[in-house]
User: What shape does this take?
Amino acid sequence: MSRGTGLFGPVLIFCTVMFQMPAAAQGPSQPVISIIIDDMGKTLDTGRRVLGLPGPVACAFLPQAAHSRELAGAAHAGGKEVLLHLPMDSVDGRRLDAGAVTLNMTKREFTGAVKAALAAVPYAQGVNNHMGSLLTRHPGHMLWLMQELRRHAPMFFVDSRTTVATVARQVAGETGVPSTQRNVFLDNTLDRTALEHQFDRLLHLARKHGSAVAIGHPHVQTLALLERRLPRLRRQGIELVPVAKVIEIQQEEAQTWQASWSHSRKAAKN
Assistant: This one.
């Protein structure tokens, strides 16, 4: 038998095609991060300090906090992204903030609560969950939420991932709501070493994957960290961008990967 025409020739060609991976998606020219500060609206002093942070730090406001409306307006005027920080049921039964959505609500009650919460936070461009380790694992309730966000489009969702069992982002995708998820909690521990470690981890994930999202809270220690580290980002080759931009980048990468994979499957079939 001549080389390439016997039994193993076609098999080797077939295997080469079958196991050729899709071309890597073209990501942003440099790694990007988004940072969301949750629990906004409770106090004016720390809220104003958040608004003074450099760059497009996103601000997530509790719907019925005393200063949410005022600070959301100021955040929007200052070029900061505004999110609704929607309280949801948790598995540990912690007391919920006002304006929460719960597992025992009917669809009508649930939808009414979401509408009221959105109305309480002017200029909201997206929603992320406050707590929610119970509610975000329930597809039906997440469907009600995403359907309401579709009615308020353009509106995105950020899964805070307070449980690994969450289905929120999956349902968002099925409903056509743009979404992303939290990759790092900056301040579960408030000592300086731990905060610095989490911030470094955020940058590492951005360099590895092209983008990453962090959530922090308006603690004095967290704000001091961000005041120190945010001005250095450009020198480190990292760009701070709005959450909507991260979602846009991730969607483009997913579409490029899907197109490449479809092309590879077609080549393999042929």
Observations:
- The first strand starts at residue 32 and ends at 40.
- Residues 60 and 83 are 4 Å apart (CA to CA).
- DSSP finds nine helices and nine strands in the chain.
